[in-house]
Structure prediction request, 190 residues.
Amino acid sequence: MVRKQGRSFSFCSVALFFLPSHYFVSLNQANAESHFWNDLGIVKFDEKLKAPSFTLRDLNGKEVKLEDQRGKIVFLNFWATWCPPCRAEMPSMEKLYTQFKDRDFIILAVDLREETKKVRVFQEKFKLNFPILLDSDGRVGLKYEVWSIPTKYLIDREGYVKGGALGARNWASKEAFELIDHLLITKRDS
Prediction:
């Protein structure tokens, strides 16, 4: 029995020896990538899920389409002004946006079911520069199955949802900057 285990181990060793070196590079990249998601408590989706399309108006009445963001990493955040965790994470989201806005990264903050005036006052108070969109009837939130806020999704350059998270995070943290940087340098076809 010991010999069989020994042979099996030797066979596995030989088999691993002959695996292409890019397999190990891919494995190391996968492990490194999972650490970016895990450190922030973001669930990384294994399946390729196409982000549901939508068109919403921003605070100035301009239409913003998700499809128009192709080629960018999209940080899609569902929130409301009355939500304490939403309020808490907004300053760190602004820092994240400021850090990456010139590198094909955008935050789309979708306010759920509130009046424009109330949201504008909030934007001015917190000095937020990223786009804030109004989902006045909640239909986009329903498309994304938002049952709790804040809820966010990270969408890749091709429009696939890479992962999601419930609750507030410190988006100005080293881990958040590393995750967004990693997503920005990841090849389009991966």
User: Anything to note?
Assistant: Confidence is low (pLDDT under 50) at residues 1-30.
